[in-house]
Design a protein that fits this description.
The strands form two sheets. Strands 2-1-4-5 form a four-stranded mixed β-sheet, with no helix packed on it. The protein is globular, with a radius of gyration of 20 Å. About 45% of the residues lie in helices and about 10% in strands. By secondary structure, the protein is α+β, with helices and mostly antiparallel strands. Helix 1 runs antiparallel to helix 2, helix 1 packs across helix 3 and helix 3 crosses helix 5.
Length: about 280
């Protein structure tokens, strides 16, 4: 495993600056009250969800700005990427992973205070075998700082859209799984008042590879971290030393893809029941 071993005051060649945590005193990573930090993020997510559900977009945007400035969110996001995610030991194009407490504290400070100066780095192309076959699936691995910023932005964006999604939508949503979709289908089928029984099982080939960037950005509207998202979409992919532009599609291998792997490596499964 490669570790970030730069000393205080250095700036890495890809822009991860060493810095203290809160301005009044250095951050001791081992002394962070994680229960309190998680609770602060949870409460702020709930407020964004409630404002979105009420249709108060101005309040949603103000709360999202608050989330993006939140020290608790910066801490939780860095911990999620460097300690909890399965890909925490996988480096991006800069070869950097962060395993030491000092490096995590520096990351959290950068995420909270200096992310406006950051430019998204290209993805590192890797290939992994698809389940049950000899074909390979292409992944794009972001650098560690981009993953931390993605986790930070996700906590601001996800509750807004969770309030908008259909209640019977299960794909790639927090706290929901393929098993939940199957259970919903079962209970609909066995229901006494079901009038029409039909199930559509569809695999959308290359759905993530072809999605239009303009459509994604249009859907984001005035989301405060919209330009960061644009940067991630347009960052390009480094494969065998060659940089390929990304004109369409979203990468698989980033923060969300690592946590929501679809069964049988399907890109998207849509199951619908019309009661």
């Amino acid at each position: 495993m490669i570790e970030d071993t730069r000393t205080e005051g250095q700036v890495g060649r890809h822009g991860i600056a060493a810095a203290n945590g809160p301005e009044d005193e250095p951050l001791d990573w081992h002394q962070v009250d994680w229960h309190q930090a998680e609770e602060e993020v949870r409460r702020l997510r709930q407020r964004i969800f409630a404002a979105s559900q009420a249709g108060d977009l101005a309040r949603v945007r103000n709360l999202q700005k608050l989330m993006l400035r939140s020290h608790a969110n910066a801490l939780v996001s860095v911990r999620r990427v460097t300690e909890l995610n399965a890909g925490r030991r996988t480096a991006g194009v800069d070869g950097v992973t962060v395993a030491l407490a000092k490096g995590k504290a520096e990351l959290a400070s950068f995420v909270q205070r200096r992310s406006a100066s950051w430019t998204a780095r290209p993805l590192r192309r890797v290939f992994i075998p698809k389940a049950g076959g000899k074909k390979l699936r292409a992944l794009g691995i972001p650098v560690i700082l981009d993953r931390c910023l993605q986790a930070q932005a996700l906590n601001a964006l996800e509750p807004e859209w969770e309030a908008r999604f259909e209640p019977k939508s299960y794909g790639f949503r927090p706290g929901r799984s393929c098993q939940d979709a199957v259970a919903a289908i079962f209970w609909t089928v066995v229901g006494k008042h079901t009038k029409r029984l039909w199930v559509l099982d569809a695999d959308l080939a290359s759905a993530f590879d072809r999605v239009a960037h303009d459509h994604i950005l249009d859907q984001l509207g005035t989301f405060p971290a919209r330009e960061l998202v644009r940067g991630w979409l347009k960052a390009g992919v480094l494969d065998k030393g060659r940089l390929a532009p990304t004109e369409e599609g979203t990468p698989q291998g980033g923060l969300c893809a690592a946590e929501h792997k679809p069964p049988n490596e399907q890109r998207r499964i849509m199951r619908s029941v019309d009661p």
